[in-house]
Amino acid sequence: MELYLDLHSQPCRSVFLFAKAVGIPFEFKLVDLSKGQQYSEEFGKISPMRRVPVMKDGSFVLTESTAILKYLVQKHPSVADHWFPAELQQRARVNEYLSWQHMNLRAHGSKVFLLKALFPVIMDAEVPKEKMDAAGEDLNQSLKMLEEKFLQSKPFIIGDKVSLADLVAIVEIMQPVGVGVDVFEGRPKLSAWRERVKKAIGEQLFDEGHELIMTASSLMQKMQNNSQLEMLKPKLRKLFS
Ligand SMILES: N[C@@H](CCC(=O)N[C@@H](CS)C(=O)NCC(=O)O)C(=O)O
């Protein structure tokens, strides 16, 4: 199996960490987003969506991180049940979180990240304060929902054990953290949950998966000197306007 990834990307990290944590072997195919490699002819043949992650299992190509995660669970019976429980209502809880996160925690965490990491390079200007404040407020609302609706007083989202829901949540949360927005400050419950998730994945593996994003400021420098950036500018300008 091949996984096309860039570990700056949250959905790529979820697939990478899951495969490694449960011992599914794969070939790591780097698609360097900072170099615009998603627009290469070669990658276009694999996925016309030009987004990562992509999984290639023989001739079967699959996009969308949550679809890939579920495919891996279902393909490998050795994967422990708690990751995506067979029991109807537990599985529904995982699916509930995965459905919610796209337009909420992912959207809001990504916005803060993109504003901090890319806005100044793309727009050649500082981020307007009201824009940053609004993005921060949205992210706070999502984090509040994660704590109050999804986690409540349980160790993990579905109860006593880690699942795909926790994994997908933590990789999104680490995105703003990578650009210096410490969302764990003043949130002891969320911090304790992060430590449990880290332990469940394996601390060394967790840090390996997050190494790039924790030095995301270098991404800005890399992109600044990159001619491919011109291709990305119109898309990002639209996002920021
Ligand atoms: N819903 C997709 C999102 C994939 C996605 O947005 N990937 C981003 C990186 S986080 C990407 O490849 N962006 C490249 C681009 O838009 O040019 C998933 O969960 O896999």
UniProtKB/TrEMBL annotation:
A GO BP annotation: glutathione metabolic process
UniProt GO MF annotations: glutathione transferase activity
GO CC, alphabetical: cytoplasm
Keywords (A to Z) from UniProt: Cytoplasm, Transferase
Catalytic activity from the UniProt record: RX + glutathione = an S-substituted glutathione + a halide anion + H(+)
EC number: 2.5.1.18
Domain called GST C-terminal: residue spans: 87-229
Source organism: Zoarces viviparus
Subcellular location as annotated: Cytoplasm
InterPro entries in the cross-refs: Glutathione-S-Trfase_C-like (IPR010987), Glutathione-S-Trfase_C_sf (IPR036282), Glutathione_S-Trfase (IPR040079), Glutathione_S-Trfase_N (IPR004045), GST_C (IPR004046), GST_C_Theta (IPR040077), GST_N_Theta (IPR040075), GST_Theta (IPR051369)
Protein name in UniProt: glutathione transferase
Domain of life: Eukaryota
